[in-house]
Amino acid sequence: DIQMTQSPSSLSASVGDRVTITCRASQTISSYLNWYQQKPGRAPNLLIYTASTLQSGVPSRFRGSGSGSDFTLTITTLHPDDVATYYCQQSYITPFTFGPGTKVDI
Amino acid sequence: EVQLVQSGGGLVQPGGSLRLSCAASGFTFSSYDMHWVRQVPGRGLEWVSALGSTGDPHYSGSVKGRFTVSRENAKNSLYLQMNSLRAGDTAVYYCARAGGLVGMDVWGQGTTVTVSS
User: CB B47 to CB A32 under 8 A?
Assistant: First the structure.
């Protein structure tokens, strides 16, 4: 199985800050990497798919990059509504494993 | 409105069985891959199973041989039959839609499964 790691596991930043979360796969997954945002008590919400494509309706301050085994999610200007846990997930091969998550606080 | 509505969770004893359902509306269900994802409260997301529009089912190693995913396209419904349940299967279970190898863009509301005596 492909193992996904994320760093950091949590972070605290100020409104307006640039926030970067990294995700690494244990083997190459091309660009089959997705990012989700999850708020407490809610289902996950797709932000980015195939590493860098913004899902319809998602604010443009969310940006994804990377390919192969190293990926990054950037929030260019942190908003209060961005407080959540962020997960990466590979869709290259089953089992479609998730990263452990990064909790973002303000 | 595109939505997935789940039902079927509950309390079951270890070794027991439960069937989860996921009813789709607002889109052409038969054209999409469908997934099950679970989450232990306070923990991360765990992919459980997937079933393509015409393909074979796929399972995580932790549920393979115990869980069975199926779909009835005529009823716009996805199912997860869970047998030989263990305490470690206790979680919130989500169904989700995916267009091929891209992300899961529509999620159900989640249903809680508790395995306990």
Answer: no
Q: Which residues of B touch A32 (CB under 8 A)?
A: 101
**pLDDT, position B14:** 97
Q: What is the pLDDT of residues B3-57, one digit of tens each?
A: 999 999 999 999 999 999 999 999 999 999 999 999 999 999 999 999 988 778 9
Question: Please, which residues bridge with residue B1 across strands?
Answer: none
Rg (CA), chain B: 13
Q: Which residue in chain A is spatially nearest to B39 when comparing CA positions?
A: A43
The answer to whether the bond into A80 is cis (omega within 30° of 0) is no
Tokens coding A31: 């660009």
Q: Do B102 and A49 lie within an 8 Å CB cutoff?
A: yes
Are A77 and A60 a contacting pair, CB within 8 Å?
no
CA distance B67 to B89: 11
DSSP class of A76: S
Q: Is the torsion defined by CA of B114, B51, B78, B5 positive or negative?
A: positive
Q: Identify the band that residue B102 occupies on the pLDDT scale cut at 50, 70 and 90.
A: confident
Could B109 and A43 be called an inter-chain contact, meaning their C-beta atoms sit closer than 8 Å? Answer: yes
Gyration radius of chain A's alpha carbons:
13
Burial of B41 (0-12, 13-18, 19+ CB in 10 A): exposed
Whether the Cβ atoms of residue A4 and residue A98 lie closer than 8 Å to each other: yes
